[in-house]
Specification:
The chain is an all-alpha fold. The chain has 9 helices and no strands. It has 3 domains: 8-70; 83-183, no CATH class; 191-233. The chain is flat.
């Protein structure tokens, strides 16, 4: 179920407003004192459970909830096996393409990680949520290879361009690429701007990216060096 669970009374009200009015998810959420994300998730569950308004009279609240629960996506029991390979793939790629030094411990770790990933892939059992575990892990490995190429490209470009410039290029390219999806009739363009998420984006873009980076890269190391120097001076005085 969604993180924010609705009572059956509130769920029925959400369903009624969705079918009997022309209100958007945000307007329904405001009317029911919940979030538009929760409204969207419950309406999606209702559609998968073939529930509409008015609800069948032979269904009580417990039966309605059970039908919703049956269509809640189940979390896979097996954790992804490939993401831990990413740092090792980056290290090997840096050795091959950027001529960086790779220590024996890294190679040993890479061999252990590959062995474990292969063992999990072949030992994985098919289920309703993962019908082809071997194929899934292979595709995930290809995703890690793509992520490795992306990381190495940024690592190489960072020697010629500033991190701010590289971040700006990625943001604009990503915005242009995904903007074409807005032309799809299935996309509902929001008509309102949520204040809190907007403030969070501005905060992350201005304070964390600019001020936080400056503090971590410049101010913090200087502060630590001063602390070390002060400690050595105190030791010498004693």
């Amino acid at each position: 179920m969604p993180k924010e669970r609705l009572s059956m009374r509130k769920f029925k009200e959400v369903l009624r407003l969705n079918f009997e009015t022309d209100l958007s998810n945000r307007q329904i959420a405001k009317s029911c004192s919940t979030s538009h994300v929760t409204v969207a998730k419950y309406l999606a569950l209702a559609e998968q459970a073939a529930l509409s308004w008015p609800l069948p009279e032979n269904l009580d609240d417990a039966q309605i909830e059970n039908r919703l629960i049956e269509h809640v996506p189940r979390k896979p029991s097996q954790k992804p096996a490939m993401p831990p390979l990413l740092p090792l793939l980056v290290a090997l790629g840096a050795r091959i393409f950027l001529k960086e030094i790779v220590y024996h411990q890294t190679l040993i770790g890479f061999m252990i990680a590959i062995s474990g990933a292969c063992w999990l892939s072949f030992a994985g059992q098919s289920s309703a949520d993962a019908p082809h575990p071997l194929l899934g892990n292979f595709l995930e490995f290809l995703a890690m290879v793509a992520a490795t190429g992306y990381t190495l490209s940024l690592k190489h470009l960072s020697t010629h361009y500033s991190p701010l410039f590289l971040t700006a290029v990625q943001s604009w390219v990503g915005a242009i690429f995904f903007s074409f999806f807005l032309l799809s009739p299935e996309i509902n363009i929001p008509t309102e701007i949520d204040t809190i998420p907007a403030i969070a984006v501005i905060y992350l873009g201005s304070f964390v990216t600019r001020v936080g980076k400056k503090y971590l890269v410049y101010v913090l190391p200087v502060f630590l060096l001063q602390c070390v120097s002060k400690t050595k001076e105190n030791d010498q005085e004693q």
